[in-house]
Amino acid sequence: MTKADVLNKIKDIIADQLDKDASKITETTNFKEDLDADSLDVFEVVDKIEDEFDVEIDSDESIATVGDLVTYVDKQLQA
């Protein structure tokens, strides 16, 4: 799976979970500032992503943007 595939899948999950337009979500999209996501929203997104990609996302990771999340998941998948 390429990083672009990971990005597209994550964008779809975020759009579905947060009821947002996937075409407006980019790697620089900030969860709190751009998507108005609270900690519960972020938890739900992370939970779906963990299930979808069969990875574990450490809650200590500083994930502020979609790009941060994509990079983290991509590294987990490559490991």
TrEMBL record:
InterPro entries: ACP, ACP-like_sf, PP-bd_ACP. GO terms for cellular component: cytosol; membrane. One of its GO terms (molecular function) is acyl binding. The gene is acpP. Residues 4-77 form the Carrier domain. This is Acyl carrier protein. PROSITE patterns: CARRIER. Pathway: Lipid metabolism; fatty acid biosynthesis. GO terms for biological process: lipid A biosynthetic process. It is found in: Cytoplasm. The keyword DNA repair does not apply. Belongs to the acyl carrier protein (ACP) family. It comes from Schleiferilactobacillus perolens DSM 12744.
